[in-house]
Design a protein that fits this description.
This protein is mostly helical. The chain has seven helices and three strands.
């Protein structure tokens, strides 16, 4: 690997733990994303200087996240691995998996706790805060579930709007406040 490619791949490894998987799997994902051609498990092992067993476990994990796909070449019995879709597709899958693994169980726990009657002022306050957390996570989950339907071009446009949306909402609030006076 060139120094630039190695730097990127190693950084993906460091980011892996923040994305919900370990360093080696992050490195494997980074390597596959920037490799022009699909790679075999042996090539991944050699490039990252990791054991073939580690690569096999990493491949299974990346497949469970639906981030890589297997390809076959005519006349070749080896399996080749490449990213499963575009960068946008992969990002959406990571968000979906994180939601399933982290947000959904939290929402479930919050719903269960909110169904119970509070038995003290302390519990009532706690339930009020849990309700706020539930509503925030529920709204974010609903918003995030709409993103894949937009497609990469519209998502990119939405993200570029960024702070502009806040400014439009501020203007709307000012107009509403002025009209009610």
């Amino acid at each position: 690997m060139t120094p630039k490619i190695e730097s990127f791949v190693m950084h993906c490894g460091e980011m892996g733990s923040r994305w919900g998987f370990n360093r080696t799997i992050g490195q494997m994902c980074g390597l596959l994303v920037i490799s022009e051609q699909p790679l075999t498990a042996n090539q991944i092992s050699e490039k990252l200087n990791i054991s073939r067993g580690n690569v096999s476990m990493g491949i299974k994990e990346l497949q469970s996240w639906r981030l890589i796909q297997v390809q076959h070449k005519p006349g070749d019995r080896k399996e080749y691995y490449s990213p499963a879709g575009s960068i946008w597709d992969m990002a959406i899958r990571v968000f979906e998996e994180r939601r399933k693994r982290e947000v959904d169980p939290t929402l479930s726990l919050l719903r269960d706790n909110l169904l119970d009657q509070s038995e003290s002022d302390e519990e009532a306050y706690a339930q009020h805060k849990m309700h706020e957390i539930h509503d925030l996570l529920d709204a974010l989950t609903h918003f995030a579930s709409e993103l894949p339907k937009m497609g990469p071009e519209r998502l990119n446009s939405l993200m570029k709007l960024g702070a502009g949306v806040g400014k439009v909402l501020d203007m709307k609030d000012k107009l509403l406040n002025n009209s009610s006076k």
